[in-house]
Every structure is written in structure tokens, then in C-alpha cells.
């Protein structure tokens, strides 16, 4: 991945856009999120870019539907968590409510982008076949799954950046979502009493697959422990590593009961 290209895209991100989406219709959301990255032409221009890309390859559509599937999962999780009686404490509830608004907005945006090509919402089993049977009655279990979903989601978006390089407008929107997902992950980690960043591949009691590879200390071909003379733990905290689709679905798969295709 060309890091400079990614950084230049990140610099264009309007960090307040998603915070405003709850006040807009779906059409307005779509247009406002994209107008800065599609020469001010709004959703119509983005649709043209998307259609042109579809004509060349299905990879962009695949990535967007992949992202949509993960956003469906997160949105459903927070919606059900907030609906569960006496589950989320008052101190954490405002964060859950705001994250839920973001996740539902992400779903609306991706569905708008994909149109009739959007995959339908899967059927989810947040107990993962009974492994987390008390997810909506025990707040500690609920927090743990929230962290698992958020930390996985951040790495999942990062893992698809190279597949969107040919469609800069789409990449920019994906990065807008990615940065917000990273904020979610940090907040949920704090709620659980964790640091906001990942040290080495510390799983914090969650499945190790979520954090596999996070202990990496070589960036751009340079071993930063050797180059900077600082600890591997500090270097690992400074960088997040991507996850591929197969790795992400191996993590999320137990929670997806059916794809409803």
C-alpha cells in the first residue's frame, strides 16, 4: 500500500460529517458525505464513478457489500443492546446510543451507494451458538463483544484500502467510516478498562484471532525497534495492522446465522 496516498486521502476527511447524519434524510446524507470528494457533484457523480468501476471490476462492489455486512452486524448489535432492559448502565448508555446512530448511518450510506446491488441484512446470532448466551443480560459479556466487533471492524476497513485505490471517491468515504470506527473502538476499550490502543497482540480475554499480527514492529521495511531504540510494545501501539476478508469472516462468522441471499 502507498502510505502517502492513504495519508493524503485521510487529510480530506470531514470528521464532523457522520456526527451530523442523524439530522439528514438518506438522500441528503449521501450527498453531503460525498460532495467534497466528487468535485462537489454529490451522489449523482459518485454513482457514475461507482458504475464505471463496476463495469471494470466487481471488486469495489464486493468490498462495499463486505463493509455493509459488517455494518449490519454492528448496527444490529447496538440496537439490541440498547433495547435490552437494564443492560447498559447510565454512564455508558450515551456512548452506546451515539455509536448506534453512527452504525445505522453507515448502513444507510452503504445501501444507498450499492442500490439494488446491496446484500440484504443477514440473520445474526449474537450468542454465537450459545458461547455468549448472556450477551444481552450480562453487561461484561456485552462490552467484550462490542470490543471484539469494533477492533475487528477497524482492521477490516484497513485491509480493503488497496482494493479501493482505483476509486478515490469511494476510498475517501471508506476512510471517513474507518476513522469513526476507530473512535468507537477506543471508547469501548475505555469502557472495559482497557487502553485505547492495542499493545503487541494483547487480546484482553477476547479471541486471539482478532489481534493476530498486531505485534508487528516493521513498517515500510524498517524495524522500528532497532531504528528508534524503543520497546516493541510502544512500536506496536503506534500502528494498527490490516485484516483480510477471510480472516474477518472467520472471526465474525459464528455470529452470522444466515446471509439471506
Describe this structure in words.
This protein is mainly alpha-helical and 261 residues long. It has two domains: 3-198 and 244-258, Ferritin; 199-239, no CATH class. The chain is 56% helix and 3% strand. The protein is built from eleven helices and four strands; from the N terminus they run H-H-H-H-H-H-E-H-H-E-E-H-H-H-E. The chain has a two-stranded antiparallel ribbon. Strand 2 and strand 3 form a beta hairpin. Helix 3 crosses helix 4 and helix 6 packs antiparallel against helix 8 (168-191). The two termini are 32 Å apart.
- Number of H/I helices: 11
**CATH-assigned fold name of the largest domain:** Ferritin
Distance from N terminus to C terminus (CA atoms, Å) equals 32 Å
CATH homology superfamily of the largest domain: Ferritin, core subunit, four-helix bundle
Helix-strand pattern: HHHHHHEHHEEHHHE
Kindly estimate the percentage of residues that lie in beta strands according to DSSP.
under 5%
Largest sheet: 2 strands, antiparallel
Briefly, what CATH class of the largest domain? Mainly Alpha
Q: What do the pLDDT scores average to?
A: 82
Binned, the helix content reads 55-70%
* Total domain count: 2
Strand order of the largest sheet: 1-4
Number of strands: 4
Over the alpha carbons, how many angstroms does the gyration radius reach? 18 Å
Which CATH architecture of the largest domain would you pick?
Up-down Bundle
Shape: globular
Protein name: Ferritin-like domain-containing protein
InterPro entries: Ferritin-like_SF (IPR009078)
Pfam family, one: Ferritin_2
Amino acid at each position: 500500500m502507498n502510505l502517502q496516498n492513504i495519508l493524503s486521502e485521510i487529510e480530506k476527511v470531514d470528521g464532523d460529517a457522520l456526527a451530523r447524519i442523524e439530522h439528514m434524510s438518506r438522500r441528503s446524507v449521501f450527498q453531503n458525505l460525498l460532495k467534497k470528494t466528487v468535485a462537489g457533484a454529490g451522489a449523482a457523480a459518485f454513482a457514475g464513478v461507482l458504475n464505471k468501476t463496476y463495469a471494470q471490476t466487481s471488486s469495489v462492489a464486493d468490498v462495499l457489500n463486505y463493509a455493509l455486512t459488517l455494518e449490519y452486524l454492528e448496527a444490529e448489535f447496538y440496537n439490541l443492546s440498547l433495547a435490552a432492559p437494564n443492560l447498559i448502565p447510565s454512564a455508558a448508555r450515551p456512548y452506546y446510543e451515539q455509536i448506534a446512530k453512527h452504525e445505522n448511518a453507515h448502513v444507510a450510506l452503504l445501501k444507498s451507494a450499492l442500490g439494488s446491488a446491496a446484500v440484504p441484512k443477514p440473520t445474526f446470532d449474537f450468542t454465537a451458538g450459545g458461547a455468549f448466551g448472556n450477551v444481552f443480560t450480562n453487561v461484561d459479556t456485552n462490552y467484550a463483544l462490542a470490543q471484539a466487533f469494533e477492533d475487528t471492524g477497524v482492521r477490516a476497513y484497513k485491509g480493503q484500502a488497496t482494493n479501493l485505490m482505483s476509486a478515490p471517491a469511494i476510498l475517501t468515504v471508506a476512510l471517513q467510516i474507518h476513522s469513526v470506527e476507530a473512535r468507537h473502538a477506543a471508547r469501548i476499550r475505555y469502557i472495559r478498562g482497557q487502553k485505547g490502543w492495542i499493545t503487541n497482540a494483547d487480546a484482553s480475554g477476547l479471541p486471539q484471532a482478532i489481534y493476530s499480527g498486531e505485534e508487528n514492529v516493521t513498517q515500510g521495511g524498517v524495524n522500528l525497534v532497532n531504528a528508534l531504540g524503543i520497546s516493541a510494545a510502544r512500536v506496536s501501539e503506534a500502528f494498527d495492522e490490516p485484516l483480510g476478508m477471510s480472516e474477518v469472516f472467520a472471526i465474525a462468522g459464528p455470529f452470522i446465522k444466515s446471509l439471506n441471499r
